Amino acid sequence: MNKHMLFILKTTLLFSPVIISTSVIAEDVLLDRQAPIPAAEKSSDSEYLVPRDLSLIPDTPFGEKVKLGYSLFVNSQTMRGQYVGNEQTCSNCHMQGGARANAAPLWGAFMSYPAYRSKNDKVNTYAERIQGCFTYSMNGLPPEQDSPEMVALTAYSYWLAMGGLLDKHGMQSTEIPEISDAAIQLGGKADSFEMPDALAKKLPVDKRNALAGRGFPKIAEPELPASRERGEIVYKEICASCHGANGEGIKANGVQSFPPLWGAEAFNWGAGMMRVNTAAYFIYENMPLGKSVQLTNQQAWDVAIFMNTHERPQDPRFTGSIEETRSIYHDTPVSYYGIVVDGVLLGENSYPSQAVDEKGE
Amino acid sequence: MIFDQFRRYCIAASCLLLITSPTFASTSPTIQTCTSCHGADGLGVANFTPALAGLSEAYLTSQIELYMTGRRVNSMMTPMSSLLKDPKLQKQTLAYFAALPAAEITELEKPGEHAIILDPARRLIYQGDWSRDIPACSTCHGPSGQGVAAFPRLANQHSEYIEGQLLMWQSGMRRGDHNNVMGNIASKLTKTEISQLAQYFATVK
Predict the structure, then answer these.
(1) In Å, how far is A70's CA from the nearest CA of chain B?
(2) Rounded to the nearest 10 degrees, what angle do helices B29-38 and B2-20 cross at?
(3) Of B110, B181, B183, Cβ closest to residue A288
(4) Does residue A172 sit in helix, strand or coil?
(5) B103 with B203: CB under 8 angstroms?
(6) What pLDDT score does B27 carry?
(7) Cα–Cα–Cα angle for B44, B50, B53, nearest 5°?
(8) ipTM greater than 0.95, yes or no?
């Protein structure tokens, strides 16, 4: 216990916030496409979309894209070295192959794009949002729009969303329309997005990005300020059996089974999960796997800050200066990038970002 | 009484093996006591003992510790585990069994390889059933149930052993897993599913 008490968090805000308007960011700066995962109040179970059973994926060219999307999503390590630069798989965070409410489901995200982002003064398509996942969460390089991988991942998302919507609105016998790759990559919130008339009437454009169960459900602020030392205790007791004593995850017989949470093989400093609040919401709702244990609100915040005060791959938007990178992209109390924790400046000893050519299979 | 009878049986059996086994010179008496029930090849005996070959040292160690501390109880293994009190002997013995070869899995299946899975057991293994908060078995037990670190191999394990253990997890007779993960999942499985899963894992190729 004393050992833990001595493990004092020395957090110092080194840099005062610097307000930089978007116009200052050069054109060639990597666009911030990793919008914060939405956090909404939790809804009742009956409101969530339930995608159709995977066995109903049609035996058509479109169905083949959907199936490939599922496979890439559930075993993303098949893209290691090309698009994926770490030991992460999409479904590590998007549980149940991206179908599960309150685990940032693909159907919720699909229906929220295209979306205007003030940060880069640009409308981002759904495909661009997924490219953000590859750049940050997967610490890789994103597949191009219209690439087989992007077509597949977006087709799978669309199939989940449309099946769930049709069923929710009593249209179980309606087949999921097979629309073009281009329309799907744009996203379900486009004015031009084709939906059966009955559905379009029930779901006008402005309501599509607010489906119950999208993102991770928000939890209350912690009763006590989140504590790294309490978080370490939670981590050792509950999380380490799967994620390793040092956050390294478990890889057995060459197969990634449990994802690393920090270090070279984890999501990088630009990923949504590096935000302490996003991590706390995710952990509270979805961890440990199978929910045999429910963490308290306090435990979720404590272990989230513990996880997110470790080094990980550098933010791909790194400008060459940690101070500047923090002021542009991390000017928020939920990011510990550029903060001194336990005497070490986070971001200073980061691992390589976009590590796709080093360990390709 | 049952313990004593079993102990006598095992000692007798191990004596027999001592005489007949061509490998006895290279293995300790303790290992021979274990092999008298689990087989010289560590593959176990149907309706009697589980296969140990293919199980990781981490898993075997955790289970012996559970038996020794009384958190896992079995009329045979609770007394037998006391033979492994000495840490050095325990490590040597468990490393021996962990190193024994299990059947090779020639068609290793990883999660995500197939979107459409109709076999109910295989579906639970690779996709789980999230409407009941059941994650895919393969998440922890690995592709084709080949085991992951301290999560035991299930592939080619005797079906009646897997079935019996899942029923014991369900009833609370078997305990000692971290975070109650397995007890929690088993409690949601139906008897039919348990039987199907046991059959599937036992016959993994």
Answers:
(1) 6
(2) 110
(3) B181
(4) coil
(5) no
(6) 81
(7) 65
(8) no
